[in-house]
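Hi everyone,

Forwarding the result from last night's run.
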Amino acid sequence: IEKIRHDYLNEDLSEKQIIDKHNITIKVFNRIRRQNNIPKRPYKWVDKSKTIQFNERYFENIDDENKAYWLRFITADGWFGNSRGSLQSLSIELSQLDLDHLEKFKSDLNSNHTIRKRSRFDKRNNNTYHSCSIHINNRKLCNHLKTHGVTINKSKILKLPELSDNLMRHYLRGLVDGDGSWHICKNNNSIVFEIVNP
């Protein structure tokens, strides 16, 4: 409770960041604040357009191998937030073992977005899953992805974009990294590669 109090009153953390840091829900957080007389801090308006910087036109033209790769990788491990049918935000969530991959995505976008980490306990199998994610709220970026066939129902209606042969192989590399897997078949000890696109 004292750590939550400290983070809330003394650190420059949002309520969402505090909740993620201490692995609690917003309901628990509010109860702790009320029961322990932690004063509600004054609302501080932040102009996100000045604090968040990145290349929002990155996907306008798919003209290099990294753009082609991320275009297809997003269709596997990304999802969109939307409002009235208009794409508003892009999110990608991976295992914390793949944190370096999200850092590479940030670097390619010249982004200073925060990569968030969280742990989630699954009661069904008694396992704890550690993930990392990036969330980008930008309609222009999402609309550029949409022009290349990436939509909300991307897994069901995705069509191949018009790319040169040289870029198409990097696009397919994104498919393998996002939806591909290797495993050993126990019946004959053979190595099997498969692509699963739900």
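The chain has nine helices and six strands.

Cheers,
N.
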